[in-house]
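Suppose a colleague, Dr. K., hands you the sequence of a protein chain of 94 amino acids and asks what its three-dimensional shape might be. Before reaching for any lab equipment, you can write down a predicted structure in token form. Begin with the sequence itself:
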Amino acid sequence: DTRGNSDTWAVDPAPVMSLVWRDSNGSGHAQIDAEHRHLIALANTLYASESAPPAVFDAAVSTLLQALRGHFAAEEQLLETNRHPQLDEHRRIH
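The predicted structure, expressed as tokens, is then:
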């Protein structure tokens, strides 16, 4: 595309994406917020490893997926314990 800038991107790729925690992301529950911060850090590790050797990238994917599974289970258990009225919807979203 003569109007595009893909040649520029090939020479000067865009910076690695990064997620940032904001206080407005907080749920007010210390454990859940700590887990969310940890997931953001793991996602940033994954983003940073996009050009790494495949084994490094694969390890970052696996680590993030494992943490997500653990977080979803813990959060859903907490919501169930507290009889959260929208638990089923929250599980579906996970």
